[in-house]
Design brief:
By secondary structure, the protein is an alpha/beta fold. The protein has a single domain, classed as Rossmann fold, CATH 3.40.50. Helices cover 32% and strands 15% of the residues. The protein has 8 helices and 6 strands. Strands 2-1-3-4-5-6 form a 6-stranded parallel β-sheet, sandwiched between helices. Strand 3, helix 3 and strand 4 form a beta-alpha-beta unit. The protein is globular. The chain starts with 6 loop residues before the first strand and ends in a 5-residue tail after the last helix.
Amino acid sequence: MNSPQPQVIVLHGLGRSPTSMRRIEHQLSEAGYRVLNIDYPGVSGTIDSILPDLLERIDQWINPESVVHYVGHSFGGILTRLIIDSKPEWNQGRCVMLGTPNKGSMMASYMSSHPLMKYFSPKLADQISPDSDFIRDLPELSIPTGVIAGSQQFSWLVPVSWFYQAATDGAPGDGVVETSNTQCRNMSDFILMPLHHSFMMWDSQLISQIKHFLSEGKFKH
């Protein structure tokens, strides 16, 4: 008897949409996974409204007999931590985080307090500052998790990254999240790639690393 098709839940970052994760979705589907590239209101939503809605929609989609993996970009990785903690009864597999501010983001703090940028920041931006109660109280990961961080700090195409140096005092990072803040206590593996936060999801080598981790539980070093 064949095993049930493995599943992957894909979650985009703040201010983005499932379109930003479409290439990952397609390549995972081609690799044999059943994929849910799910949307949430990353600009106007709050955790109290986003999380229950995600759990309900995933619960309607998921096959409880099959393993479920996760791929989250930026804040999508934070949501993944909350989902895993909320649903321990699911057949949890592995998780890959892409530029996720596991310890918060100084860029988010900078945007939330800037006299102009605060009007264009997602509502959740102030919750992901490194000293926020929300970040402090995030549940620890309970499944094998690989973290991919980017090292390209600047892009003319991404206005937020123009202020990265000022917001972080030049800390190594991907133009939005400091490298050290992508890491988390219970991660299984970590890899740094020469990519910018806003575009890493489209990189072929990064997607290859995602597939390798979901299959083997480690990156190709």
